[in-house]
Amino acid sequence: MTTTSPQATDRTEPVHTQLQYQLAVFARRMEQVRTSGGIGTLDRAAYLLLDRLERHGPANVKALAEALGVDSSTVTRQVAPLVAAGLVGRVQDPADRRAVRLALTSCGTGRLAEVRDGRAELTRRLTADWPPEEQQAFCALLARFNLAMESYTADQQGQ
Predict the structure, then answer these.
(1) Which of 42, 61, 116, 142 is the most exposed place for a label (fewest CB within 10 A)?
(2) pTM of the entire structure?
């Protein structure tokens, strides 16, 4: 299955129409790459959970849910296969011996590094012919767009 080439979009359409289309194509292509097995088979939710645990250390379900902008029940459901696969473990909370926190295991650290490296290599290949300043600009603009989406979501949830 192919998707219309980004170059084939009608340049006379308003920029926001073009952008929403490009974002849809981007999301589809990312899923195609992920499921093809070319860069590892961690889905987006698993990748973000493992990354959060690596960067910030063990956390309880509620803290993870808040950090990721999802419900606690969603984190519980998403982390179950990661625990079963040995990528995440449950550790005692030092502040409350009755509570548990989720922590990245050494297996999880290795898997995350493998997937992250694969994604970075793919990104290098896809942007190899871009000048470094365009790579930096794309990264900065994408980060800015993600922040705007995060703010929008927080505003919507606050209403």
Answers:
(1) 142
(2) 0.80
**What average pLDDT does the segment 46-59 reach?**
96
Alpha-helical runs (H) found in the chain:
15-35, 44-56, 61-68, 72-84, 106-126, 132-158
Q: Read off the amino acid at residue 72.
A: S
- Chain segment 115-138, per-residue pLDDT in tens: 999 889 989 999 999 999 999 999
> Dihedral (C-alpha) 69, 146, 40, 110: value to the nearest 10 degrees?
-70
137, two tokens? 């600009």
| 81-113 confidence digits (pLDDT tens) | 999 999 999 999 888 888 899 999 999 999 999
Tell me the residue type at 48.
L
Buried/exposed 114-137: b ≥16 CB within 10 Å, e otherwise: ebbebbeeeeeeeeeeeeeeeeee
Q: Is 28 helix (H, G, I), strand (E, B) or coil?
A: helix
| Alpha-carbon span 142 to 136, nearest angstrom | 10
**Which two structure tokens, joined as six digits, stand for 60?**
């309880």
